[in-house]
Give the backbone structure.
Amino acid sequence: MFGRLWLAVTVSGLGDGVRAGALPLLAAFLTRSPGQIAGVSFAQALPWLLFGLLSGAIADRLDRRLVLIVANVVRAVIMAAVAVTVAFGHTPLALLYGAAFCLTTVTVFADAASQAILPDIVSADQLDRANGRLYTSETTVAQFAGPPLGSLLFAISGAVPFVVDSVSFAASAALLRTVRNRAAPVPHEGPVRGIGTALAWLRHQRILWFTMVASTVNNVGSEMLFGIFPLFALQLLHIHAAAYGLLFLCYAAGAVGGGLVAGRVKGLLGEGPALTVSVVLFGLPLLLMAVWPHAVFAAVMMAVSGIGEGVWNVVVTSLRQAVVPAAIRGRVLATLRLFSWGSSSIGAALAGVIGQAVGIDWSAIAGCAAIVVTGIALAPFLRTAAIAKLRAANASALAADRS
């Protein structure tokens, strides 16, 4: 059963990557307004803020396999509609906003169900291996193969990448119909009470709050660049549409490399410095790229920034999983994700406002500088000794979880 789920996730992930390479280019060809371009990123990010916690409750109450199937069918229809409008040369920007918002809304619920369904399919001792295979496949197709292919297909014919994305979702839904899973548990707490429980525990966890601040600034600041990145790449880097996805290929390569060496970085620097250094390593290359927009230099800086993101993601995720008690882990992580992922919509809005007012380069510079400053400012608070104290304070609760 896992093999079919793995294949379904990989197929839809390839479609996601193709769309990621083509959709920003479509927006850039419809308008050159920074505010309107950023509006697409805002529409894509907003559902995480609106529906992030609700999606977890839905995934716990309904058949997760059915949620995934319905979500993929709906996404296939949305992308087919976009493909038709592009093919006939009648794609109003409002339609692109609506499609981006609806697509991400469905994706929020699909992601929650996808994360929750795995323990219903594989045994507990196989979860690490299964998660690793899923992560590797998604990274490979969604970040390595998909974006360059999407930008290349868009340069050949604007509608083709969206047809590919629609077909990938339809194929994924068909594969998921063959998957059988155990019934999902129904939680005893309602979503509102569950959020309150998570917040009550989080209130006394200063280290986790600091990591959430860093994640939030990372997302806001980077979205002030990536929210208008099609214009940045086409106008300032002078990159052809067909090569647009190659920049994200460099970024993905760095992220995978960072993830692979994260353990060594943590062992060499200590857990606290590894966190703060990774934030600076994520933001500083993007800042330098914004200050000196040159195509080759940008490719190198994207790769270096990806290393910082890879180290950060591995170290901070491992920390959170290690110190949050299992009984409230899902709600706590969902609460942290609400702030960090939902903040992307704020960054996209700022990108539009600043880019429209003073220029897209200044939006990128301001956002990336904020990331670097945050990394430096948090260094005194994210110390290895303080993190070790947090781990020790939660050791008894974690031991009770395992018993």
